[in-house]
TrEMBL record:
InterPro entries: Stress/Tellurium_Resist, TerD, Ubiquitin-like_dom, Ubiquitin-like_domsf, Znf_RING
Domain (Ubiquitin-like) ranges: 96-171
Keyword Metal-binding: yes
The organism's place on the tree of life at top rank: Eukaryota
SMART domains registered for this protein in UniProt: UBQ (SM00213)
Name of the protein described by the UniProt record: Ubiquitin-like domain-containing protein
Keyword annotations of the record: Metal-binding, Zinc, Zinc-finger
Matches recorded under SUPFAM superfamilies: Ubiquitin-like
Record-annotated RING-type domain positions: 3-52
One annotated GO molecular function: zinc ion binding
């Protein structure tokens, strides 16, 4: 995510996980560092949210200060994916720490001396993160790391990966091949009203991209385009008696225009400040012909303190072939304001 104050790219964990005061109706787009700096410059008896008129209590300001003081993620995000110098050891090995960063901002630190080959790296990622080796797509400096280089085991040195470097880990949950002939992709979303019983909406949206360019969206308001009948959104299906809501998105992947390369599935809260206000939310992404075969699993409760979460991306991998990629990236924004969500999607850099 990009902080709107310092204009720097930051990990999602470097932002407040929820509204900075109960009176705010938005997630802060200022990183914790900038937020604390701005609040400290204000009158101590009347500290106000930099983005709305809400006033913070002294206790709320202290909680933010404590969150910043204890933050374990103070790293230089600008170094992610950039070449760093290799420090040689005896002429042919390197020592020191490097990092693996997931799309949701989670960072894992590993040792170079324990990960000389790409195969060893995949094995250690599995041990640390429980991500199956076959589902790992590793990117450094815009290049995918290969297990084999010139008919020998690929090494980190082949890609000039040294101390302090950051490798991006993309988790490919599922490959949809031409042989499977997936007819209709379905995104099914259910939720219960917030604890106060008032009607509210947990929106399921699908944002389509052509490379890195936004192409079209499907949500409660944009349910259908007559010029393209192969994708639909159900709109809101509300049961006020049971205090439950339901939305459904269907897409025929084999009918999508060739320029469409990604479909991002997003959850966002409409009126409530965070997703955690909804009771028992659940979703399912599956092939309509095989409803028992889930293509993406994500525990929505992980995003309880966020206004929105980018769940996953269905990305074109070749002629008639698609990959389901785990994202799980928190974001500000909702179905009434997609700008923060589009910024977060841009940070994923999954365009083809």
């Amino acid at each position: 995510m990009k902080c709107t104050q310092c204009k720097q790219e930051k990990l999602s964990k470097e932002f407040p996980p929820s509204t900075i005061t109960e009176r705010c109706q938005h997630i802060s787009s200022n990183c914790l560092r900038c937020l604390i700096t701005q609040l400290k410059d204000q009158n101590k008896t009347l500290r106000k949210c930099p983005e709305c008129p809400a006033i913070l209590t002294p206790q709320e300001f202290k909680a933010l200060e404590l969150a910043w003081d204890k933050a374990p993620f103070k790293i230089d995000v600008n170094s992610i994916g950039k070449i760093q110098p290799i420090i040689p050891d005896n002429g042919n090995t390197t020592t020191g720490e490097f990092h693996v960063v997931m799309l949701n901002g989670q960072k894992t630190t590993l040792l170079l001396e324990e990960n000389k080959t790409i195969i060893a790296l995949r094995s250690n990622i599995f041990k640390k993160l429980q991500v199956n080796q076959a589902k790992q797509k590793l990117i450094y400096n815009g290049e995918e790391l290969q297990d084999t280089v010139e008919r020998r085991p690929g090494t980190l040195a082949d890609y000039k990966i040294g101390p302090g470097c950051h490798i991006q880990l993309i988790v490919v949950l599922y490959n949809i091949t031409r042989a499977e002939a997936l007819k209709s992709l379905v995104f099914d979303l259910h939720w219960g009203y917030p604890a106060n019983g008032s009607q509210d909406y947990l929106d399921g949206s699908c944002l389509l991209y052509a490379g890195d360019t936004f192409w079209r969206k499907y949500d409660y308001a944009s349910v259908y385009y007559p010029s393209f009948p192969h994708m639909k959104h159900s709109g809101d299906m509300m049961d006020n008696a049971k205090k439950e809501g339901h939305q459904r998105i269907t897409a025929k992947l084999d009918q999508l225009p060739q320029e469409v390369t990604q479909l991002y599935f997003v959850l966002s809260s409409w009126k409530s400040p965070t997703i955690g206000h909804f009771k028992t939310p659940s979703f399912k992404l599956y092939d309509e012909a095989q409803p028992d075969k889930e293509l993406c699993t994500y525990t929505i409760q992980q995003a309880a303190n966020s206004q929105a979460v980018i769940l996953c991306c269905v990305s074109r991998a070749g002629e008639g072939m698609w990959q389901v990629i785990q994202v799980g990236k928190f974001s500000a924004g909702n179905a009434n304001d997609y700008d923060p969500i589009e910024i977060s999607i841009g940070e994923c850099a999954l365009h083809g």
